[in-house]
Design brief:
It is built from five helices and nine strands, in the order H-H-E-E-E-E-E-H-E-H-E-E-H-E. It is globular, with a radius of gyration of 21 Å. It is α+β, with helices and mostly antiparallel strands. It has a five-stranded antiparallel beta sheet with strand order 1-2-8-4-5. Strand 4 and strand 5 form a beta hairpin. The chain folds into two domains: about 30 residues; about 150 residues, Immunoglobulin-like. It starts with a helix and ends with a strand.
Length: about 180
């Protein structure tokens, strides 16, 4: 009887190890991640407003129909990027993801405190190469350091009512993600 319990316990431990290894390896081997799905739709260093999700289809899984969504695929190999996202009436957020879908920075209109979310996106090396300008303070210029040269910037504007969705979409159409 004890020998059977040892075999069962060993099987459970081995199953747990295989399960954890699979969970950790699977995201890195997936070929249809968010970056790959958005590659045909979104140009590099430019925002594209995604179509509203329907019950039949959406560009990216689990999109919320109450939000207008715009995506910028960025590439910092040639230099830093200047990001400008106008604030919508209700709520606007900007989230930064690496190429491997890891979120590393997020900002919303409440923390931006202006009529537009404006920042510079660059790698750590590009930030080190910036000249020190004593007249420009940290409050004047928000700089976000990207851990990778490529990734995604996702801007979302909330629409509290379906009738506000065109206004939220229009605010995201004015968003810019361009090289400096």
């Amino acid at each position: 009887m004890i020998r059977w319990l040892q075999w069962i316990a060993g099987g459970l431990v081995l199953g747990g190890i295989v399960h954890l290894a699979t969970i950790l390896v699977l995201p890195r081997t997936a070929t249809r991640d968010a970056y790959a799905r958005l590659a045909p739709v979104a140009p590099v260093n430019g925002f594209t407003v995604l179509p509203a999700p329907t019950a039949e289809a959406s560009t990216v899984p689990f999109m919320d129909p109450a939000f207008a969504t715009a995506v910028c695929r960025y590439d910092l190999a040639k230099g830093a990027i200047k990001l400008t996202v106008p604030v919508s009436q209700a709520y606007t957020s900007v989230t930064f993801y690496t190429r491997n879908d890891i979120a590393y920075y997020a900002l919303n209109d409440r923390s931006a405190g202006r009529r537009a979310i404006e920042l510079d996106l660059m790698t750590s090396k590009q930030r080190e190469d910036l000249p020190d300008d004593e007249e420009v303070t940290r409050a004047d210029r928000l700089i976000v350091e990207s851990p990778s040269e490529t990734g995604l910037i996702v801007a979302r504007a909330f629409s509290p009512e379906p009738s506000f969705l065109p206004a939220a979409t229009a605010s995201l159409q004015a968003a810019q993600c361009k090289p400096q």
